[in-house]
Amino acid sequence: MTGKMGTPHSVDSDAIERTPQQRQQEWTQFTDQWAQVYRSVYEDDQDVLAGWTDFVTGERLSEDVMSQWLECSRRRVAALAKRSVLEIGGGTGMLAAKLAPSVDRYVMSDPAAAASDVMMARATDSTPITVRAAAHETHYLDALGGPLFDCVVINSVAQYFPECAYLSFVLAQITPYLADDAVIYLGDLRIASLHHEQCRERARRLNPFASIDDIDGAATRLAQSDPELLVSPGHIGRCGASLGEEDGSQWSVAFYPRPMRSDCDLARYRFDAVLYRARPGASLPVAAAVTRWEDLDRVDRAGALHDYLRSGAGEIVSVPNSLLLGYGLSPFELAQQYGEYAVSIGLDDPKRLWVAASADALRFDVHANDWLRSSHDIHEPITVFRKRTSSASSTHGGGLS
Ligand SMILES: C[S@@+](CC[C@H](N)C(=O)[O-])C[C@H]1O[C@@H](n2cnc3c(N)ncnc32)[C@H](O)[C@@H]1O
To which CATH superfamily is domain 20-284+373-387 assigned? Predict the structure, then answer.
């Protein structure tokens, strides 16, 4: 989801240093407000696509784009071939409806779930169980019991988290409920290092005749007031690294573009991350031989890339993403040709893609030093909320206005 139709108002404009209790309280206030926004969207509009708007145009996303978007998440999770799924922030159950029929167990929670859905203790296999709970409230998992989860889905939800520390906290909270070979799918994350560019596009759209300086100024203001969380691969890597600290488990991570047929905001400015837990004693992926796109035969680079991958030689890095650079290849073309998990976004430059003959080559040990080098861009909306006046009833329509 891009700009959602409403923005929760300020939590506490003066909070700077927080005790753990204050932080929890602030997180609860923050998430309650998003839950309220979503509850009213879902109540007002029974349509499952309610509230999905394009960040750049502010217009409602078309059914065609939304079905590509949904299919992209469905394929991604289905390809993981897991059997026991916990979906956090499942919303109207769009994804659950697609995935639940082919797994043994599918549990879904969402703080905006309608009261009538609360704690439907249906033990039926393949039936989504909707629990009214925010991501950090995991007590209901004890009450549910049942087998451990081998897959957690957090799809298009993390942008409503207040800050990166909340994401780490949520992941730490759920690890006791995870099987040894579990995966955590973080779908549709917003790319922090492309935030300004995305806001510039929106500013240009709002005022096509403005000067470059004015557009830049407007983009900066839009970015600063954006109520959503934007992260970089490095942050997800660091969240993964903190996961193993508690119980000694080993994790690797990979970052994928969103391969959609249409060139749209959702395909350009989002990425998926998958955290993989390694069974005890299992070895982590080993780096493959790397060749740069620029070093391939200039006359037919796409053909050279094809030959290289077919020979199983390793991976090609720095492939220009044509959606963002206007030349090169698109994530959709590459995923069609080489597979869902064969294409990664560049760790240091999300406008470049990495393509590998083996999907394993695109998984990285969360403790690898590369994380220290990768982008530190981040946008944490908790600061936006603190800065805003706490004038009680101010809910702002139209996303980032
Ligand atoms: C854009 S919808 C995504 C729905 C679903 N995951 C999908 O992909 O179709 C975002 C959902 O996140 C939920 N949400 C917002 N903040 C949350 C939080 N802190 N914990 C869990 N869910 C949250 C909202 O209530 C909303 O239903």
Answer: Vaccinia Virus protein VP39 (3.40.50.150)
